[in-house]
Design brief:
Elements (H helix, E strand, L loop, with lengths): L1 H27 L13 E5 L5 E8 L2 E8 L2 E3 L10 H12 E4 L1 E3 L16 E7 L4 E10 L4 E6 L5 E4 L2 H5 L4 H4 L13 E8 L2 E7 L17 E6 L2 E4 L2 H12 L3 E6 L4 H6 L7 E12 L7 E15 L6 E5 L5 E4 L1 H8 L6
Antiparallel strand pairs: 1-5, 2-3, 2-7, 3-4, 6-10, 7-8, 8-9, 9-10, 11-12, 11-16, 12-13, 13-14, 15-19, 16-17, 17-18, 18-19
Length: 343
Amino acid sequence: MKKQTKKLLIALFALLILAGGYVALMLFSPTEETEEKTEEDEVVYTVEEDTIRKITYTNSNGTIELVLEEDAWSSPTDEACPVNGYTVKSMITALQEIKASRTITKEEADLEEFGFSDPTLVVDFEQKDGTKTTYTLGMLNNVVDKYYFQVSGNDNVYLIDSTLYHSFDYDLLHLAEVEEYPSLGAQDIYEYTLTLNGETMYFKDTKDVAHKKNAEEIPDSLWKYGKSEDDLKRLDTDSADELIQEIISLSNSECVTYKLTKQDLKDCGLDSPKMTLKVKYTELDISEEDSEESEITDHSYTIYFGNNDPESGEYYVNMEGSNAIYTMNVSDVDVLMSAFEEK
């Protein structure tokens, strides 16, 4: 009898624990009614992006003016600068809509306290109808990681995120468009040469696929190489593919200057290049009048490789006929240099 009573008490105790846990769960679990609602940021100002025709902005780098003429952006600040249209487009996107997480009325606002006496950024822009607007960023509020903001015609101060700041954090050099090399496929190149420290290596597709790419049966490439054009030996398929893929994927990193001088060439080691790459390729030109008619034309380009940038370690490069110097990824250049190793 005592054993049965003991078992009954244990079972009852366990049941009370379960019941208590259930009640606690119901009491402390959040419900739809108790969940805290987050208010959306207030839209402070909007503008149609395709109406903006002129932008002038001042940041820590100085003042830069941009104008839209015949669907292309240029800079009267320095007409030699090849302005990157995509960068300007991102700027316009940032101007298009300003949202604020907090509004400080003009009665509460202390412009000196919010950093407007020495703005972080000022952007003036003009629309096609002549409407002029000014955005001003004051200081950064480090607590919430947002900037104090004002728009012309409105005395209130707003807290906005850093999108506007980062969209205009450019000097002219970083606003310049980075040149691209011809967009090629593996079958477009029929010959190239590499010169490293005065030694030249010749590479040639002996099947000349580039000039046969519109034929009914296109042969497989057969690459040969050597230090003399008259004495070439076969290059194994993997090495040939690796080099071709590297050539067609070459790209510049950052612009060093877009109006080079002889001194720039000397400083970057491009007055006497460490390596030179010359690529010969073909393009298939299709007639606009008759799509079935096509013509294969020959083209070429040359890239010069100089010293390494002391900060990034990347190589300085310049394309023949260009007034710009860029940097290029080290590993890409090293693959080309490896062509001089014994295979």
